[in-house]
Specification:
The chain is built from 23 helices and 18 strands. By secondary structure, the protein is α/β, with parallel strands linked by helices.
Length: 585
């Protein structure tokens, strides 16, 4: 500030607004009263404080702002801890996009600008204000925010004593948590406060595992840091909030989706880590069986029709569809996606983000996209009747439509679409195929060893052929002792055969459609998993985890050799040889 004042005095001397005698006299008065030369000149009424502020702005090459009539914005002001605002005499005035306009008494203080940038996590655009005006505004802003001018988290990260002490450890802790999650291949990070401790967990290969995290006392500061990074409301802790930010990892940035909900012990945070398109490869790398890969590729390359991927949340459906989109994405095709949120980005593809608050739903987006001359449309999820009907109509009018449904298996997609009031004749004409899938954990390659599965699992999944190269991981540092590292897909592909179309026309049940599909050559996903277990890629324990009784139904149908003479009976009853046995829809 003293250097800036000296520059301002010199500028005013050059402009003739000050004389050397006036400056000399003011220098004597300043030394006697232990104040600054500019303050002595203002006191002597040689010039006003505003005159010096304007001169400082010229020297600093930043705009000048008069704060006399500025309306306090408590929400923006709360982004900066009170102690830091007082120390460097600065206050955010407004936030626009990724830049904050900050009033400063000394914009030439680069150290202060760096501190502001680190605390606000956005670009800083300094403007100069009179120091006394600015101090009064700081007092007024934080007074309006109550006796606690910042939240408990912000108090942890304030700077004092001339040292940036606690801010850096909190930043380092958040960076370390995310970096370690990426290194371990986690898909999600959970920060969960309890009564006496904070639980840090990573979802690795579909399973939550506990990791050593910061103490509970740091939890509020970690939450505030994540809110700053994802542009959320720092003053709000009583309602759910969602945001996102991009985290820089050498070689490939990671998009992070942030979900925060209030709980009785504090705000619970879940981070979803999205690696973008860096992990996408060809269809041949999805892990499909050779014959299924050939059939799926043929379905993808069709000029029109609807191709669905089904399975629960986290089963890899988006990756499968984007792998298909990667194959279709050429300069000769116009590819558009509608998603909530957009998780993967591809060049040439037009990605549309659903925004319910402004009425941009899947259905309204899909209607608009149809006027954009698309060739390929990826609908992130069919959630309602309107979206389902428009998607089917799109496939009927010459477009290739890729989408997902949440069903237990591939045949269940037919029943779900019919629940959405899609006519049977339209489904038969539009639908090309349905790929049901799950993800199972892959045996760790570093500690895998030959093993003999339990007899009950062999009898359940390999009743006719128990031979194979079964392996299991013993546990090692590379897999954190779990015996598994990475995941592999297990699939079932239901193509639209004539028999399936006839059954759909007669409104056959999902269970009956499944039996017809298996009889027509569809390899169930549990059987695909059993084959991969025989190859030592996964274990039968993993296959049992995702089978959900489907294997019992499929084995019963296969063992009996009988199917109903009328497979379209509404009750889906079985013929002799299977009556009374469990049927899973």
């Amino acid at each position: 500030m003293l250097i800036l004042d000296e520059f301002a005095v010199n500028l005013l001397l050059e402009d003739g607004r000050l004389t050397a005698d006036q400056v000399a006299e003011a220098t004597k008065q300043a030394a006697a009263s232990r104040t600054t030369v500019t303050a002595a000149l203002v006191k002597a009424k040689v010039l006003t404080a505003k005159d010096f502020a304007l001169a400082r702005a010229v020297v600093s090459e930043v705009p000048y702002v008069d704060l006399d009539h500025y309306e306090v914005d408590v929400q923006v002001g709360s982004l900066l801890p009170r102690s830091l605002a007082d120390k460097i005499v600065a206050l955010p005035l407004f936030l626009l996009g990724k830049a904050a306009t900050v009033a400063m008494a000394d914009p030439l203080d680069l150290s202060a600008v760096d501190r502001l940038r680190g605390a606000l996590r956005v670009d800083v655009l300094p403007v100069l204000a009179e120091a006394e005006q600015l101090r009064l505004l700081i007092d007024r802003t934080y007074s309006l925010m109550g006796s606690r001018s910042i939240s408990a988290a912000a108090e942890v990260v304030v700077e004092s004593g001339g040292k940036a002490a606690e801010l850096d450890p909190i930043i380092a802790a958040v960076n370390s948590i995310i970096t370690r999650a990426v290194e371990e291949g986690a898909s999600d990070v959970h920060l969960s406060p309890d009564e006496t401790e904070m639980c840090l967990r990573y979802r690795i290969d579909g399973i939550l595992v506990v990791r050593q995290g910061p103490p509970l006392s740091n939890h509020p500061a970690l939450v505030q840091r994540l809110k700053v990074m994802s542009n959320l409301d720092l003053t709000q802790s009583r309602r759910p909030q969602d945001g996102k930010f991009r985290f820089p990892i050498p070689g490939h940035p990671v998009d992070v989706r942030v979900s925060i909900i209030p709980t009785v012990y504090g705000e619970n945070v879940v981070l979803r880590l999205l690696s973008g398109s860096t992990g996408l490869r060809g269809i041949e790398h999805l892990g499909l069986a050779p014959e299924v890969s050939t059939e799926f590729t043929a379905l993808v390359q069709r000029a029109h029709g609807m191709l669905l991927a089904t399975g629960p949340t986290g089963s890899g459906k988006t990756t499968t569809l984007y792998t298909a989109m990667r194959e279709l994405n050429t300069p000769g095709r116009h590819c558009v996606t509608i998603e909530d949120p957009v998780e993967i980005r591809l060049p040439l593809v037009r990605h549309v983000q659903v925004n319910i608050e402004i009425g941009l739903t899947f259905a309204s987006s899909l209607r608009a996209i149809l006027r954009q001359d698309p060739d390929v449309i990826l609908v992130g999820e069919i959630r309602d009747e309107e979206t389902a009907r428009i998607a089917v109509q799109s496939a009927l009018t010459g477009h290739m439509v890729l989408s997902t449904l949440h069903t237990n298996d591939a045949p269940g997609a037919i029943a779900r679409l019919m629940d959405f009031q899609c006519p049977a004749f339209a489904l038969n004409a539009a639908l090309s195929g349905v790929l049901g899938q799950r993800l199972v954990r892959r045996v760790c390659g570093s500690c895998a060893a030959a093993c003999s599965p339990e007899e009950s699992l062999l009898h359940r999944f390999c009743p006719r052929d128990t031979a194979g190269q079964f392996r299991a991981g013993k546990g090692c540092p590379q897999c954190s002792g779990s015996g598994y590292r990475g995941r592999i897909g297990v699939y079932e592909l239901m193509s639209m055969t004539g028999t399936i179309r006839q059954a759909i026309e007669k409104h056959a049940s999902a269970a009956m459609l499944r039996k017809l599909a298996v009889r027509g050559g569809m390899k169930p996903m549990w059987a695909d998993g059993a084959d991969k277990a025989r190859l030592g890629l996964t274990t039968l324990d993993e296959i049992a985890r995702i089978a959900s009784g489907m294997d019992e139904q499929d084995v019963e149908s296969d063992d009996s050799g009988n199917l109903p003479s009328d497979p379209t009976r509404p009750d889906g009853a079985l013929a002799a040889g299977t009556a009374g046995k469990k049927v899973a829809a």
